[in-house]
Write a structure and sequence with these properties.
heterotrimer, A alpha+beta (about 250), B mainly alpha (about 140), C alpha/beta (about 575), B: about 140 residues, mainly alpha, 3 helical TM bundles of succinate and fumarate reductases, 2 domains, two-stranded antiparallel ribbon, 4 helices, 3 strands, flat, C: about 575 residues, alpha/beta, five-stranded parallel beta sheet, five-stranded mixed beta sheet, 15 helices, 24 strands, globular
Chain lengths: ~250, ~140, ~575
């Protein structure tokens, strides 16, 4: 068992560099270290100029997504020793503009998230005095999986459609829209249908399925999208035959 | 909610790496996906071939025999072999992916995806066996 | 560059987002800025697991929740604040349900509740074992509805601007570009969370550096009850990752190296096969953490490369119960310790988890500085007193986030906009920041070295058990570290996304907060809740039934005063568990 490993880290400093280069660092490799521990070792002891995002180090905040040996991973949940003897290539997440080193710009996702209206939409609100909206455990199960998204963006990094066409709304945004569509308390499915059935909405997806493969929380965004396509297709047919509004 | 409307966003030069034209060769799953997509071309040929077959059969024994001869042609036969591969590939990947696209419930429990895929494959096997029997019993 | 908002939130976690929504709903004409050093969904609220307490069962009552909280706090909680808190908590949790929070349910569709440490009745609402995650995402996604809320994502606030005795804005670094910006506001609400990273072993994320506490402290607002640091009894040994109290609420046992449920030796009741409210493993966190230290002294803990541990035994719960009630616990153990709780024991130890202390506020989140409010873990109202009960901090975010939001909205709507004096101050801060860390002559201190020494100092001098000597030594060492910080050299002098600069600023905040903690602890000569002095082992209500208020002084040593606790209906009594 090697006790050191080489990290090959992608560097990009916009003030001085015209493109990305790879810098090598040798770090310890104890068996319980994750990639993030290696990066922190670099920053603390070898090179303080390395920039990357991290926070909870328990796979729930979604900050630390990066490309490790070509695969999108949460670096807090990926053991360094799994890559022994190394070297390990650590690059920023794919398909997003790189701001600096391992930091990418996720503003595109933030805007797309807003566009699918990820909140409870109701015609009439129930007053608090009447208590909670009843929702059985089975009804909760219907959408629960899609509510587990930590917005880590690994799915966008894995999706070749998003890579080829950044206007594609993307897996996480659609999964979150579906989370609300399937929530019994929500009545906003018709509103979301408009945005989602646009060309770059769900129909941009060709079911490559990589998003589901890389998702660290088993959200299954590919499933959400295909299920939603069925729903959207049915709605389109209904609208065709009953144009006055088949609600 | 406005993003950035309350302040001007100053930003440095972002790096936008271009996606390689050969992105689909970078991962096995991407390659499998592309093959799946390409298979639709062969499916289309399969449909056309089937229609030609039916037309030839409806025009009498002589036309049908001509059609069979043509099918043995040095170009048509390999083409159909490749087409068979792609049709089978398409069917397998389709049935394996089907469970993700549909949520089937019996009572309140969700039918596991493996079961849906397996039953699709089973139905396909049964249908193929039936067709095979129909074709071969006349021999 | 300057921007302006009517109300500014510093911090975009549970309290910050709840406050922002409260302002947007109370007064849609006010402009609201949310400045956060991370994207809001990364805020540490996201990692809270166990649940949020609110009385809803017919066999429960507000008075009982209040009593549990007050006794859990070892009578240091302000009882009027607690009474308001327990009353509003169920309504806030219900409001969150209406906003879509996926609370776990009973078979009939009603919201479910589970037992929790220190609570006599079942009143903890939960969303599987990812309650904080679901609450934060519900709040964040709901906040997207309001067009009056403008976000400044990844902007780091370096100072509060105070003019004429009023807080009137902030200066912040826009991480993306490195530009230093002034944002003026009529009111500022601090929602920056706690400061667990001041200690070496903590459940807290990297971002919990006590930013808001230091900002307020430097601006002249006192910090309250800083000596009360909560240790969570069950954190994983290397990473400090939290294993939720819910694992014990569902029936887990804490055993020492002999497989013995040792809590029975510490006046916490007798072991039963099923969990008993306020007894054994469902005792309060301070007592459980203290029991661990005693077990170490007796040599009954297991040694690991990461220090002594005890074990959490969940094997008797069965796979089905674990998967349905505490699946995240299983996931964390497998992922980070390579251990399956269904078949193996989980090594755990107490780790720093929560700050009962914080910026002194009244029941509406107002600090002693006009225009400055605070809510959430950064604030100290105080409802948690000397020890917080599990599942009280999540509703605290909602109740006091909403209160602070409404109070700040009212204040802002009747105030004028900040004037040129504030802008001038902003400019001065720009210049100071631009020059900071740039000198290299004679500067050779390293960031990580100073940080680790600070953390070691805090662990040794202000851990679970303290005494006058260790605290005195700690204060001296912190003072020396402060000096050395002045000679800090950083490697990164670039502008774009310079995280080293931010880390250095965070360290300077932490040094201030550490000093406040140690000095408050030194002055409190009694043991109460989470503050245990081996040289003063008893609770002393005669001298110390009061909150400590620590003020920064220009001379160096902080000044500590005392503010009596508000007692309404529950006179101080003995804290009893297990009987």
């Amino acid at each position: 068992m090697a006790d050191r490993i080489t990290l090959q880290v992608s560097r990009y400093r916009p003030e001085t560099d015209s493109g990305a280069t790879v810098q090598e660092y040798e770090v310890p490799c104890p068996k319980d270290w994750v990639i993030l521990d290696g990066l922190n070792y670099v920053k603390d002891r070898l090179d303080g100029t390395l920039s990357y995002r991290w926070s909870c180090r328990m796979g729930i905040c979604g900050s630390c997504g990066m490309t490790v040996n070509g695969e999108p991973k949460l670096t807090c949940a990926t053991f360094l020793a799994d890559y022994a003897p190394g070297p390990v290539l650590v690059e920023p997440l794919r398909n997003f503009p790189v701001i600096r080193d391992l930091v990418v710009e996720i503003g595109d996702f933030m805007r797309k998230l807003v566009s699918v209206k990820p909140w409870i939409i109701r015609g009439e609100e129930k007053p608090l005095s009447e208590g909670e909206y009843r929702q059985t455990p089975d009804e909760l199960q219907d959408y629960k999986q899609f509510s587990m998204c930590i917005n880590c963006m690994l799915c966008y990094a894995a999706c070749p459609i998003y890579g080829l066409d950044p206007k594609f709304i993307g897996p996480a945004a659609i999964a979150l829209a579906q989370r609300y569509n399937l929530d019994t308390r929500d009545q906003g499915a018709p509103e979301r249908l408009e945005i989602l059935s646009e060309h770059e909405g769900i129909w941009g997806c060709t079911f490559v399925g990589e998003c589901t493969k890389v998702c660290p929380k088993n959200v299954d965004p590919a499933g959400a999208i295909q299920q939603y396509k069925l729903h959207a297709a049915v709605e389109a047919v209904k609208a065709f035959f009953m144009p006055r509004g088949a609600q | 909610m406005t993003d950035g409307a309350g302040h001007t966003v100053h930003h440095p030069r972002w790096l936008r790496p271009r996606m390689s034209t050969y992105w689909w060769l970078q991962r096995r799953s991407y390659l499998a996906f592309i093959l799946r997509e390409v298979s639709s071309v062969f499916i289309a040929w399969f449909v056309v071939y089937l229609l030609l077959l039916i037309r030839a059969a409806s025009q009498g024994a002589a036309a049908y025999q001509e059609f069979l001869n043509w099918s043995g042609h040095a170009v048509v036969l390999p083409l159909n072999v490749i087409t068979l591969f792609f049709v089978v590939f398409h069917a397998i990947t389709w049935f394996n992916l089907a469970p993700q696209a549909m949520v089937v419930r019996v009572g309140s429990t969700r039918v596991p995806g493996l079961l849906i895929a397996a039953s699709n494959h089973a139905a396909w096997a049964v249908a193929s066996a039936l067709v095979g029997w129909l074709l071969l019993r006349g021999q | 560059m300057t921007a302006r908002q009517d109300v500014l939130l510093v911090g975009g976690g549970g309290a910050g987002l709840r406050a922002a929504i409260a302002i947007a709903e109370t007064n849609p004409r006010l402009t609201i800025g949310v400045v956060s050093k991370v994207y809001p969904m990364r805020s540490h609220t996201v990692s809270a697991e166990g649940g949020a307490a609110g009385v809803i069962r017919p066999d429960d009552s507000l008075d009982e929740h209040a009593y549990d909280t007050i006794s859990g706090g070892d009578w240091l909680s302000d009882q009027d604040a607690v009474e308001a808190f327990v009353q509003e908590a169920p309504r806030e949790l219900l409001r969150l349900e209406h906003w879509g929070c996926p609370w776990s349910r009973e078979a009939d569709g009603r919201v479910g509740v589970r037992p929790f440490g220190g609570m006599k009745k079942m009143r903890t609402w939960y969303a599987a074992d990812k309650t904080g995650f679901h609450m934060l995402h519900t709040l964040f996604q709901t906040s997207l509805k309001y067009t009056s809320i403008v976000r400044y994502d990844e902007w780091f606030v370096t100072t509060l601007l105070v003019d004429d005795g009023r807080v009137q804005g902030v200066v912040a670094i826009d991480l993306m570009s490195g530009r230093i910006q002034t944002i003026t506001a009529r009111a500022v609400i601090l929602c920056t969370g706690g400061c667990g990273r001041v200690f070496p072993f903590t459940t807290n994320a990297a971002i919990k550096n006590g930013d808001g506490m230091a900002l307020a402290y430097r601006a002249g607002a006192p910090l309250k009850d800083m000596e009360f640091v909560q240790y969570h009894p069950t954190g994983l040994p290397f990473t400090g990752i939290l294993i939720t109290e819910a694992a014990r609420a569902e029936g887990g046992y804490l055993v020492n190296k002999d497989g013995y449920r040792y809590l029975q030796d510490y006046n916490l009741g007798t072991p039963e096969p099923k969990p008993v409210f306020r007894s054994m493993e469902l005792g309060p966190r301070d007592r459980l953490s203290q029991a661990f230290v005693k077990e170490v002294e007796k040599g009954r803990t297991t040694d690991t490369p990461y220090g002594p541990v005890v074990h959490l035994d969940l094997r008797h719960l069965g796979e089905r119960a674990i998967e349905s009630k505490i699946p995240f616990v299983r996931e964390l153990c497998l992922k980070y310790q390579n251990i399956d709780p269904v078949t193996e024991l989980i090594p755990v130890r107490p780790v720093v988890h929560y700050m009962m202390g914080g910026v002194h506020t009244d029941n509406d989140g107002a600090t002693s500085l006009a225009g400055l409010y605070a809510a959430g873990e950064v604030a100290c109202v105080s409802i948690n007193g000397a020890n917080r009960l599990g599942s009280n901090s999540l509703p605290e975010l909602l109740v006091f986030g909403a209160r602070a939001g409404r109070a700040a909205a009212e204040y802002a709507s009747s105030r004028s906009d900040p004037g040129p004096a504030v802008l001038a101050q902003g400019k001065a801060e720009h210049s100071r920041l631009e020059k900071q860390f740039l000198q290299t002559n004679g500067h050779r201190e390293r960031l990580s070295v100073l940080r680790e020494e600070m953390q070691q100092t805090m662990e040794e001098s202000a851990g679970i058990y303290r005494n006058g000597d260790s605290l005195g030594r700690g204060a001296d060492r912190l003072r020396a570290l402060r000096q050395r910080f002045g000679a800090l050299a950083i490697d990164d002098h670039s502008q774009t996304f310079n995280t080293e600069r931010i880390t250095a600023l965070e360290l300077s905040f932490m040094l201030d907060v550490a000093e406040a903690i140690v000095n408050s602890a030194l002055r409190r000569e009694e043991s109460r809740g989470a503050h245990q002095r081996t040289d003063f082992p008893d609770r002393d209500d005669r001298r110390f039934l009061a909150h400590s208020l620590v003020h920064r002084t220009p001379e160096g040593t902080p000044r500590v005063e005392y503010l009596p606790v508000t007692i309404t209906r529950w006179p101080p009594a003995e804290r009893v568990y297990g009987r």
